[in-house]
Structure formats: structure tokens, C-alpha cells
Amino acid sequence: MRDLGVQRRLQQSDVRAESIAMRLGSLAKLSETEIALLFRVGRSPCEVHQARSLIQTPADQPTPQRFVISGWAARMRELRDGRRQIYQLILPGDALNWLPGAAAAEIIQCLTMVQAVNGMAVTLAMRDRTMWPGVATALEQAAAQDHAFLFDHVSRLGRQSAYERMAHLFLELHFRLTPVGLVHENSIPFPLTQEAIGDLLGLSVVHVNRTLQLMRRDDVIILRQGRLTMLDMAALQTASEFRPPKTAPGFA
Amino acid sequence: MRDLGVQRRLQQSDVRAESIAMRLGSLAKLSETEIALLFRVGRSPCEVHQARSLIQTPADQPTPQRFVISGWAARMRELRDGRRQIYQLILPGDALNWLPGAAAAEIIQCLTMVQAVNGMAVTLAMRDRTMWPGVATALEQAAAQDHAFLFDHVSRLGRQSAYERMAHLFLELHFRLTPVGLVHENSIPFPLTQEAIGDLLGLSVVHVNRTLQLMRRDDVIILRQGRLTMLDMAALQTASEFRPPKTAPGFA
DNA sequence: CGGAACGTTGATAGCTATCAATCGACGTGG
DNA sequence: CCACGTCGATTGATAGCTATCAACGTTCCG
Fold first, then answer.
1. Residue A81 has what pLDDT?
2. Inter-chain contact A202–B152, Cβ cutoff 8 Å?
3. What is the C-alpha to C-alpha distance for residues A161 and A215, in angstroms, rounded to an integer?
4. Torsion sign over Cα B143, A21, A23, A250
5. What is the spatial distance, in angstroms and rounded to an integer, between the CA atom of A241 and the C1' atom of C1?
6. Can you give the pTM of this predicted structure?
């Protein structure tokens, strides 16, 4: 039955193959040729990582560029005493291993089963601006957006309350999952455990639980069975001051 | 007398001109030609920003690349109710306006008088790897390091106590000021007000004050007259788990 | 059926924020 | 020369948010 589940997923691979094209297409205008390239990449054989497994990046090798086409992963660091902090969520359509200067203590852990494809072709395309202008621009935009989300993350952790942080996170996820087609009626897949939310937002599991119940009681969200529905986007917005990063189409 | 002070600073401009070369030289091996280039840039006419002034970046223009040769600035965001969060400290030798994807709410404020030079020449050099291999590598390394410090910042804010955060910050500053020659006997210039420390570390001014006094009482630091001396680096290290980012010399 | 992972709840402690007031240093204007 | 305002640092009192500890419920799965 487990196998059957996996099989069903693999049958949907055409849908997931669109992730990269959809994500990058939301960041820059892509030509037909470019879209075709991204689809080809998206349909190429994918590596599968089990939930909870670590995605190792051998320190001294050139890290192969990859794109996630399904599943969630997290970049995190761990302190000696076991405290953990997630820096960044990696969602479908996102690149893996983009960041240079990764510190030794940093690891990537899969939060769900993750499927990723080799993105070498895309990386090469980025280098040839003339041939692939849209792809190059989109990848720059993606990097800029990652950076902006990291800034958001900092101010969330530094200056916002638990309730505000959580509202901010939910809106960020809504924003990021939209271009890859995973948002339906303000409802998104939500595979994060409460412990993962805590590691992301710098809170204890217990407090995450209580804050979630506050939001439920306020009729702001519904969270159950791995799905999060935002009932009151305005309230989330007001509480969190989330502002979508402006993608700069005319970026040089 | 104030004027005389400024004059004295300007006379030292040759020293400050070295900032860029020293910083980049610590990140990659530079040829004589490259060092000469960076010195030339460092001695070019500099723009001066007063303490507390904002460095505006007109949103819709290509932002001119600049390098700080003296003074401290901070990249920060502000919430509606006045809460502020500093993302990043900009120190001598650092680039200004590198980050794409800056959100609208983001501002750069000078914490001291800041002198910056136009870095267009350096930016251009980066694009020609063949001609300026060292400069190109160093700039990539610098970007990677900025990124790593941002990660540090996140885990500081998310998972560390006030004491730990502060120890971590001090070691980061020690590390970053070393290549530009501003560290003497574990003592560094320290122009941050306690309020700025709070905005950086996500703490209230009052608590910053009390934590500093704890560190003084522990004979870990001396902080007075704009200068911070670290008496017990081992204690700071143990408390903060700071680990210097590894610069990868063989980075492709 | 037992175990593991996850979620939930209550009680308690503790870290940090907030409010308010004081102090010293500095620069300004009378 | 002195009064005065501002800024930064400091201190005390108090409140409050969040962590920690412990226990229990639920679901899923071997």
C-alpha cells in the first residue's frame, strides 16, 4: 500500500514537472523555448529523499545544482545542547544548494518526501544571458527573493510576538506556494509539525500549540490533516505586517 | 575643534583607503595589479554621510555600487509601531547596496559618520574573471560571508539567550574587524549605542544594559568610551558557540 | 497489542519587556 | 558663566510572554 502511494505520486510527475517553469515564470517572462527547457528539466529523472532524511552536501566538492519539484525541506543549524533553528524553508520550485558559504554546522533536512531534479542545465542557461534571458533574470529574482525572505525571517524572530510570527509565516507560505499552483481558496498543504514550526519561529512546541489554538479560536485559520486554510487573510495581514517582496522586473 | 577632528580624520585617509584591499585580500589572493586597483579605488573621492543620516537608494534606479572605507552603518526594517530590527551591520571594507530584492520598508542608517567610495571599478573588475581573478573570487567570498552572517543572525535571534546573543555578536565583530586592521589586543572600536544593540539582537534597551553589566561583572568584557575589549575570548566562545565562516579558497 | 510520533493540557518558573525615574555628558542659547 | 534640552546609560519595580516539566490523548504502524 505504501508502494501504491508512491506510485500514484510518480504518475503525477507531469504535474510536478511544471513546478520549475511555474516558479521561474512568475519571476520573469519566459519564451516558449525557455519554458520547454524547464519542462524538460522538470521531467528528467528525479532523486527521491525520504522524510526526515538529511540531504548531505559534501563540503569539498562542487555542489550539484538541484531543483525541488515536490515536497518540503528545511535548511537548519543545530546548537550543542540540541536547540535547532531553521533558516529557510525549501518548497517545490525552489533550488537546493544554491547558497555558497554554508557553514559547517548547517544541514538540510527533508520535512516530507522530497523529489528533486538535476538543475545543471538551468545553471548553464543562466550563464548565457543572450540565449536564455528569461531564465537568467528569473534565477536572479529568485535569489533576491530568497534574500528578502531571510530578512523577513530576521525581523520576525527579532521583533515579533509568537502570534505575529505565525501569521507572518502563513502569509509567506501562501505567497510562495501560489506560483507553483499549490494554493486553492486560501488553503495550502501544510506538512510542518508543530515542532518544526517552533524550530522555524524560535518558539517551544508547547507555545506553538497554544498560539495555533488562539488563531483557531479567532477563526483566523483552520489547520488539520496536513492542510492549512486561512479564513481571514486581512487579520493575518494586520497582525503580521507581511509584505510581499516586490519582484523587480526591470532588474539589470 | 570639531573641525580639527574631522581634518585629522581626512589626513588619515590613506590608512582608510587600505580597507577595501585588506578586506578583499583576506578573502582571496590578490595580484599586485589588483591590490593597486583597490588602493586606487580606496583613495578616490569619497562621499561622507553624517551619523544617523539615512542612505537612500532610489528604488527605480540602478544602485551605484559603493564601499565603506570608514564608519559603521546598519541595514534595518521598521514596523508600524516603531519596533526596529537591524539585519546587518555594514563595516569598513564592506559593500553598500549590494543586495537585490530589498524590500520597500528597508533602510540603511549610518551609526557613525560614514565614508564611502564609488565601487564601480570593482564591480566591473568582477565581471572580467580573466583579468581580475582575485577580485572576482574575493567578491564572491564576501557575498557568501554576508550570507553566512545572516544565518548566524537568524539562529542568534531564534534560539539564543540575551547573554549568548551578545557574546556571539562581539565575536562576530572581532572576526569582521580583524582583516581591516581595527582589532588591537582583542579590543575593537565600538560605536553602537545600547539601543542599537537592542535593535540588532532583538532586545530592549534596558535588558541590553543589564546583560552588559553581567558580562562586565564576569570580567568577560570592558566596554567604555566607544571601545570594547574582550578579556575572555574563551568564555565568549563557549557561551555563544560562534564559529567563523570558513572561506572556501577553492570556490568555483 | 505495543511503540513511536505528534498533539494537547496544566502547573510553574524564568527570562525579558515595559514603565518610570535618575544621572552624566554634551552642546546651545541667554 | 549658567540654565536648559537632548541623548545615552543606569536602576528599580512590575507585568507578561514564553519556556520548561510532566502527563495524557490520539493516530498510525509494525
1. 92
2. no
3. 13
4. positive
5. 50
6. 0.91
